[in-house]
Amino acid sequence: MTFPRFLALALGLSLSLAFSNAHAAATGAVSAPVETVKPWVRWMPANLPAAGYVTLVNPSKEDVVLAGVSSPDYAEVMLHESYTAADGSAGMRMVDRLTIPAGGRVALAPGGYHLMLMDARHRIEPGDTVVIDLAFADGRHVSVRFPVKPANTRS
């Protein structure tokens, strides 16, 4: 390859990378901080609070912190943790942040961490799909589509 052709190729590649990065910055298109595996919502009748479940996988070399959740389909979404007290009683508590360790995963599953979905903004039934937005401490967001399953579903 001659030097002028090499120079033209190198310049073209540099411009291509520069414009693709500028487009990503302008549109907010950044890589997702986590991968989401098997998201689903357990539907409850009579507009009772529903629960959302998903496994969050962090393929990066740094911890990722889930700092907030919201949904266009529900008025309120909260991150909760189910627990069993020393006396054997069960309960739930709200969790402000959830760390997904570097190279690790955290399961939001029945009996543990989960999303509480309250006050549906419209009629939601099994077979529907709802969107839940995950907000991370570093400013990145991920919108995830959760299929809605019947109340008697276990996973």
TrEMBL record:
Q: Organism, per UniProt?
A: mine drainage metagenome
Family annotation (Pfam families): PCuAC
Which InterPro entries does this UniProt record tie to the protein?
LpqE-like, Lxx211020-like, PCuAC_sf
Name of the protein in its database record: Copper chaperone PCu(A)C
